[in-house]
Amino acid sequence: MQSALVVWGGWDGHEPQACVSRFVPALESAGFRVEVSDTLHAFDDAHQLQTHSLILPCWTMGALEGAQEKNLLDAVRSGVGLAGWHGGLCDAFRNQTGYQFMTGGQFVEHPGGSIAYRVNIVKRDDPVMAGLDDFSLRSECYYMHVDPSNEVLATTTFSGEHCAWIEGCVMPVVWKRRYGAGRVFYASFGHAASDFDVPECFEIMKRGMMWAAR
Questions:
Q1: Does the pLDDT value for residue 66 go beyond 90?
Q2: Of the residues 49, 67, 151, 185, which has the maximum number of CB atoms within 10 A of its CB?
Q3: 3-212: which CATH number, 3.50.50.60, 2.115.10.20, 3.40.50.880, 3.10.20.80?
Q4: pLDDT of residue 59
């Protein structure tokens, strides 16, 4: 049986508990045994981490202790999948560049705060995106520093309304990547649990988790 470790916490503004509660039933329905933790001590046991098929962190900001970061990176390099959204994955542990190297991106700004924006699917033949069309949502639209080795599945284009100098900038919204033997999946939407009321957001994240899991 596949197993998933779901770890939530950090800044409450991203509604971590409410967000992960959207996906625990989806994982269980797919046959995963799910372990849920609200403490970073979930990353203390290197051997236990490597028994999982998927790690799903939702922890904005915060800091990992040295051993915790090493254990997490080693687990993913060994083949454990990693998936997440918004600040829960890519605005976490800001001072730990090894972690950022693994995830493939880091939040730096959300011009205008919560705004209406369009998500454009750029890899329609990818199984994560199959059958889905471009869609709109209102949420924080992340401007990110991103790894050029990411395989980008969806993007958005900034209008310049809030920051004129980024007008026309095409920014990745959804990507997947490899980290050693592990698969990493990320979507930048998910500021609040209500983002996943948008059917495309929920479906993309659910499919991405399944793709990442070994």
A1: no
A2: 185
A3: 3.40.50.880
A4: 98
